[in-house]
Amino acid sequence: MTGIFxxxxxxxxxxxxxxxxxxxxxxxxxxxxxxxxxxxxxxxxDLGCVERIDAAGIAALISLYSAAQSAGHNLTVFNVSHRVAxxxxxxxxxxxxxxxxxxxxxxxxxxxxxxxx
Length: 117
Description:
Blueprint: E1 11-14, E2 21-22, H1 27-40, E3 43-46, E4 52-53, H2 55-70, E5 75-78, H3 82-90, H4 94-97
């Protein structure tokens, strides 16, 4: 993982560089990587590189949040794209997951390049 910075209460983390979508087929890898982390500490997850999320991705975020809560830790997300923020708001997760301290930054530009084909 890249971009791990220690803070007093939560550790801001970026998703692994190869994870640009939280969709069916990728949710298990996401959970396998992140559940051990939220068992050890509270985490604020940078979703700036996530372009798309579906029901499986939402379920993975709920599972990760539940794992953090069960371990006595917190999970928040920040730097979500406008599209992902809309979906989180649609299902009511914005009130639970979105960090109150971190502003949404949909103008940060792409964090990776991918060929058109």
